[in-house]
Design goal:
Elements (H helix, E strand, L loop, with lengths): L1 H11 L4 H8 L3 H8 L7 H11 L3 H4 L14 E4 L5 H22 L20 H12 L9 H7 L3 E5 L6 E8 L2 E7 L4 H17 L8 H13 L2 H4 L8 H11 L3 H10 L8 H10 L19 H11 L4 H8 L24
Parallel strand pairs: 2-4
Antiparallel strand pairs: 1-3, 3-4
């Protein structure tokens, strides 16, 4: 129904009903009825709504058949102090990406090499689920290199974007047979890797399970995926700051994550926890740890590669935009930015 699509697009842009209605030339009451699916806008109004929201008319009226609702609640990694208005807007943006990916991939199908399994957390522990994913994907025994590449190989669309709050790390949700993960582009690299693993844990374990402990389960999944217990345990006997800096470089996880892993595996004492975090504060490492910028970057490539394939096949940018469902000139993760113009100067 058009109502959910209108609601998601408006919220993703941070617009009020009054602002959209004013730009379209209708009353706020009329837009409210459209969003509630109490009335269907006529063709002229639909066209105007599509223009204001930056999508094609066909996209706005498309019958989306996705895994879950169009305006679905997202799995998200955020701090408790994140403002609801901020994370609701990011959630709407995620749902818009779900719609665009669903709309696009019905026209340009993906055939991923891997797949994301769906496991029941009542039957499989998060750690066991992570071990199964590692085995299914035939991942290396030790540290995971290029985690985003592994996730994208399973058909998950990963998108980086600037978010209205640094208290939101990422969100994820299924869309049809594939999923979408949105990451805060301003996160340090170690936190970004953990967020990808955390959101993957949600996708594997929480397709329909929404109990309060899902965040702890996603973290347990991420810990085992990135730092398998049987491999890393012998390295966690020394949890001094110097050793943790080296372990961070090897495993691509924050010093805090490595230390917490040592606690979970019993190679560090609980009595050491307060002293560890006090040392981090004293050195000014609680927010920004050393070594994060030297980790290999995790750069999403799948979304832009879909649009690039169509451009390489001879389609114009406007034609690709129409297939994605966006207005000409609008930006999308599925449409690579045009190469900057080069100015040649003739030398005599």
């Amino acid at each position: 129904m058009i109502g959910e699509v209108l609601l998601v697009l408006r919220q993703a842009r941070g617009l009020t009903q009054a602002e959209v209605a004013g730009r379209v030339g209708i009353t706020q009451a009329a837009l409210s009825r459209y969003e509630a699916d109490l009335r269907v806008p006529d063709e002229e109004t639909t066209s105007a709504l599509a223009d204001v929201l930056g999508v094609t008319q066909d996209f706005l009226t498309h019958d989306f058949r996705m895994r879950g609702a169009v305006a679905a609640d997202a799995h998200m990694r955020r701090r408790a102090t994140a403002r609801p208005s901020d994370w609701r807007r990011v959630e709407a943006g995620l749902n818009e990406l779900r719609m665009h990916s669903s709309y696009l991939l019905t026209r340009v199908p993906m055939d991923p090499d891997l797949h994301v399994p769906s496991l029941d957390p009542f039957e499989v522990s998060p750690a066991e689920a992570a071990r199964r994913v590692r085995a299914l994907w035939r991942m290396p025994i030790g540290p995971v290199r290029r985690l985003v590449r592994w996730v994208e190989a399973a058909g998950v669309v990963v998108v980086e974007q600037r978010m209205p709050s640094q208290r939101i790390d990422g969100m994820s949700q299924w869309s049809g047979d594939h999923a979408v993960i949105v990451l805060n582009a301003d996160m340090p690299r170690d936190r970004r890797r953990w967020t990808v693993a955390h959101e993957l844990g949600h996708l594997v374990l929480h397709d329909s399970y929404v109990e309060p402990d899902v965040e702890d389960q996603a973290n347990e999944f991420a810990a085992e995926l990135l730092m398998p217990a049987e491999v890393i345990r012998p390295q966690l006997k020394d949890v001094s700051l110097g050793a943790l800096v080296d372990l961070k470089a090897e495993w691509g996880c924050s010093m805090r994550a490595v230390f917490e892993r040592a606690l979970d595996l019993g190679t560090a004492e609980r009595s050491e926890r307060d002293r560890f975090y006090r040392r981090l504060r004293e050195k000014g490492w609680k927010v920004t740890e050393p070594g994060s910028d030297t980790l290999p970057p995790e750069v999403p490539e799948l979304a832009a590669s879909v649009g690039q394939r169509m451009l390489d096949a001879g389609l114009t940018r406007d034609e690709v935009a129409e297939i994605i469902g966006i207005a000409p000139g609008a930006e999308s993760p599925f449409l690579p930015k045009p190469a900057p113009a080069t100015h040649l100067r003739r030398v005599i």
